[in-house]
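Reopening this ticket.

The earlier resolution said the output was attached, but the attachment link was broken on my side. Pasting everything inline this time so it's all in one place.
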Amino acid sequence: MNSQYYQGRSPPPLQHPIPTHAHYQIPEPPDTPGAPEGAQGYMHFTSPPAQASMRAGQGQQGVFMPQPPYGGGAYHPPQPQPTADFQAWGNGTQPQQPHPNGVPNLASFGVDSATAQMGVQLGKSAMAAGQDYVEKNFGSYFLPVSLLKHQFNVSNSYVLNKLRILVFPWRHRPWSRKVRRSESSGQSEGYQAPREDINSPDLYIPTMALVTYVLLTALVAGMNNRFHPEVLGVALSKALVVLIMDVAFVKLGCYTLNIQSPAQVVDLVAYGGYKFVGAVSVLLASMVLGRKLWWCVFFYSFGAIGFFLLRSLRYVVLPGPDTQVGNSTVTHAQRGWRVRFLFIVAMTQILYMAILVLM
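Inline output:
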């Protein structure tokens, strides 16, 4: 019967129970012990900034930092103390100057100033000893530093006058180099530096002329739509080969004719590098002038460089009595052969100029 009753009616809806809680008031926190009068409840404290705490910890490592009493109010971080230099500036005095010998003040790192000065002196002595060892043992195989300083000891007036002589050498007088003599004994100690002697060879102008020649070669190739990166390497290699050939030919001639000259290999490299000035002039003329005028500039540059070497290398091939090495006398026949060799050296410059410009 019950089943028939529920089949005709739907079941009642499901009702969830509603929770009921007793009303409970959260108690207030107890008073903070040691709080000032009139303060009620728990007092909140502010923590110091993290950066200030880190700076204070770094400046006072290993020192106990006292904490304020519990309930004593807000925390105030300790203020950083000014340094000695800052106090000196504030008092109107200047800070401590560094050591006159260049030794830094390492007292803050636990190093005594006397110990630091001794270490710097030992370092300087070691570097000087190493430099002397390299110059004594490898000076004959490589170029010594003192000789390179002598070759690059030039001035602006020297460079301008030297370029004028290289382009117009016809009326220049005299061609002899100035000898440097000792103040005490008066003996010869070599030649004057290029800064003090216009006839002295240098390596500054040949180096700059070589770099300019390589760049102009690439520029001319680009103007003719023939530029590629290998042009720079080819031009530099060609210039170095020509320079080596020139120096080797002069040294071989001096050895064959038994010429004992005070000139060094660096001087011959400088004289051989002056031909790059003429090559630069020819390349500039090829960019501006026509074909016929270009050939005129080529032959003029060859003549100027040849005449310059003919007069400048005279002290190498025909040294005077003041600069001659040894006491050997030169006969009339030997002098004739040396003059012919000097003329051949001047004439071979047209071959080197043709290799640099035409090939």
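Reporter confirms the inline version is readable. The CA atoms of residues 321 and 329 lie 9 Å apart. The first strand starts at residue 179 and ends at 181.
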